[in-house]
Design brief:
335 residues; 13 strands; 7-stranded mixed sheet; alpha/beta; 42% helix
């Protein structure tokens, strides 16, 4: 195991800490509650000379993510962070980044989409992204925000897809917890590895390529490639999770099962709600009830086999969600 150190951190600080440890080339930024602090922490580190990156504050959320896309097309490592309406303002660019195969990372401090105007946690912003071709992680704890940011970049670059790390607004973004981080940033960078040598860059004038061409009938080929990349990510993730466990002692998987592995009743729920539900699971187990909690760490690629195995023993499954499809049931209940 690599040497680590303990710090007190919020979820937003943990995301910023991972960004700083990784050593990105650039960050596009536009503030929106409850994600704004991530950029503030990164920019402070830059201002103090702790890191060297291009920190670009956009004129809008779309400008910020377009800057990130430009950085990635130029061959750089780039990152962004957003919430709720901010994610929707980026929506024009996000599917394009998946189609272009840009391995950027986007942190999403989840917040329900208006109306009414609110800053409370909800997953309607997360649900909006599910068909956009982004590898999608769920970070239920402050520790997971740090860890999954590092894992996300490694798998994103391995398959040439963007990756999203979703953690709950306020419940996780502003929760202060004791977490473990790498003592030496070089160890993080060794784990992530160098930028892929075959990475296509707009600035490589000796090997010119076309980016985002106009396509009609051939569009389906890009869609098939996206599916193949997701399948490749599905195959690579167990090995990457295991590599990270060997370094840190912390094991992630497609889904976590908490409680009785052979439980007859199961609760399926995301992120911070799953952490809170563990208290109820503990109480019910003490009463002799055969119950368990299943919470995914990966939403895309959808871990169908892993979830089937995790839920197989249950006669009753309750799916609790912070989003609805209004007239078509709920997202994960349907899946």
């Amino acid at each position: 195991m690599i040497e680590q150190r303990a710090i007190i951190s919020s979820g937003n600080e943990a995301a910023a800490h991972a960004i700083i440890d990784i050593g990105y080339d650039g960050e596009g930024y536009y503030p929106i509650t409850p994600s704004s602090e991530v950029g503030e922490y990164v920019n402070r580190a830059y201002a103090q000379g702790e890191i060297d990156l291009s920190f670009v504050v956009g004129t809008s959320e779309l400008a910020a993510i377009s800057t990130v896309a430009g950085m990635a097309i130029a061959g750089g490592r780039a990152v962004d962070v957003t919430s709720s309406q901010g994610l929707l303002l980026k929506a024009e660019e996000l599917p394009a980044m998946a189609g272009l195969g840009l391995p950027v990372v986007l942190n999403l401090a989840t917040r329900d989409v208006n109306a009414p105007l609110n800053i409370k946690n909800g997953h309607s912003d997360l649900a909006a992204t599910l068909g956009w071709g982004w590898i999608t992680f769920c970070a239920p704890t402050v520790q997971a925000v740090y860890d999954l940011n590092i894992i996300a970049l490694k798998v994103a670059e391995a398959v040439s897809l963007p990756a999203l790390v979703a953690y709950d607004g306020f419940h996780t973004s502003h929760a202060n917890r004791r977490i473990e981080v790498f003592k030496d940033r070089q160890a993080v960078r060794q784990f992530v590895g160098p930028e892929p040598p075959k990475r296509i860059s707009l600035l490589d004038v000796k090997h010119p390529h076309t980016f985002g061409p106009y396509m009609n009938d051939d569009l389906i080929n890009t869609k098939v490639q996206l599916e193949h990349k997701m399948e490749k990510a599905r195959k690579l993730l167990p090995g990457i999770f295991e590599q990270y466990r060997q370094l840190t002692g912390r094991l992630y998987d497609f889904a976590e099962v908490y409680g009785d592995p052979d439980g007859e009743v199961a609760l399926f729920v995301l992120n911070s709600a799953a952490e809170a539900a563990k208290i109820a699971v503990d109480r019910l187990l003490q009463e002799g009830k055969r119950v368990k909690l299943v919470t995914p760490s990966v939403l895309r690629p959808w871990p169908a086999d892993g979830l089937l195995q995790a839920l197989f023993s249950a006669d009753r499954i309750m799916v609790a969600e912070r989003a609805s499809q209004y007239g078509a049931g709920n997202y994960f209940a349907n899946e």
